[in-house]
């Protein structure tokens, strides 16, 4: 366990992990009743009520974005996005579904998380596709997933192409969502791969994923690379 300097960071990690653990255990215990007695509808309504609290910020992140309830704009927006399917699952009225999607969209704008916005757009496109064509076959779903992956991989290049063609519509907006750079992630990736190559078989342990970039201590921003650095090829194979 890598102990951070801030007690709030530790508290945040404990609360989030505890919440996910309890939710998974309850889901296992109540699996049959959850579906047969439609208890998921109650859960959806509870989550919809809790969702606006994600806007609360206990500090500033920057002039252009707020960190939200989990003190990190990406964590707050991504967690709200991952809860959205469970919220939509049990809502019968269209107005409530629109409200849930609107709240999550507003959260991605307030937190200015580009990855969350991209994930929201892609997931909604897939959602509406399945709603429109409920008997869609496995092959089409697979191709849809692969298309989403390709768009995600080339997201920055795509954004640069789009904004270069519609820049006159943006009116000089300073939103972080319109930033079309890698924000140092390409440099971090290069550092991480070089470090991984020094001990590829067994990995370098938990403290191997921190890098000093221009005076800032940053992680890899890449889940797979982080696992490779920590556990090496052997550990990554076990994980997979």
Features of this protein?
10 helices; 2 strands; 65% helix; 240 residues; two-stranded antiparallel sheet; mainly alpha
Description:
The protein is an all-alpha fold and 240 residues long. It contains 10 helices and 2 strands; from the N terminus they run αααααααααββα. Strand 1 and strand 2 (216-218) form a beta hairpin. Helix 3 (40-50) runs antiparallel to helix 4, helix 4 (73-89) runs antiparallel to helix 5 and helix 4 runs parallel beside helix 6. The longest helix has 23 residues, at 7-29. It starts with 6 loop residues before the first helix and ends with a helix.
What is the secondary structure topology, with strand pairs?
Layout: H1 7-29, H2 31-36, H3 40-50, H4 73-89, H5 94-111, H6 114-132, H7 138-153, H8 155-170, H9 185-196, E1 211-213, E2 216-218, H10 223-239
Helix pairs in contact: 3-4, 4-5, 4-6, 5-6, 6-7, 9-10
């Amino acid at each position: 366990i890598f102990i951070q300097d801030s007690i709030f960071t530790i508290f945040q990690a404990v609360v989030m992990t505890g919440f996910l653990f309890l939710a998974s255990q309850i889901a296992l215990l109540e699996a049959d009743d959850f579906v047969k007695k439609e208890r998921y509808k109650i859960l959806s309504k509870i989550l919809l009520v809790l969702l606006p609290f994600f806007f609360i910020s206990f500090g500033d992140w920057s002039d252009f974005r707020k960190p939200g309830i989990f003190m990190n704009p990406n964590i707050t927006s991504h967690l709200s996005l991952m809860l959205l399917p469970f919220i939509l699952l049990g809502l019968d009225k269209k107005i409530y579904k629109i409200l849930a999607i609107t709240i999550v969209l507003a959260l991605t704008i307030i937190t200015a998380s580009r990855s969350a916005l991209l994930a929201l757009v892609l997931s909604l496109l897939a959602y509406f596709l399945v709603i429109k064509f409920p008997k869609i076959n496995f092959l089409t779903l697979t191709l849809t997933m692969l298309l989403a992956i390709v768009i995600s991989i080339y997201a920055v290049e795509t954004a640069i192409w789009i904004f270069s063609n519609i820049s006159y519509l943006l009116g000089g907006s300073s939103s972080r969502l319109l930033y079309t750079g890698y924000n140092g992630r390409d440099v971090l990736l290069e550092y991480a791969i070089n470090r991984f190559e020094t001990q590829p078989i067994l990995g370098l342990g938990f403290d191997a994923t921190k890098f000093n970039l221009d005076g800032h201590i940053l992680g890899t921003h890449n889940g797979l690379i982080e696992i490779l650095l920590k556990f090496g090829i052997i550990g990554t194979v076990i994980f997979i």
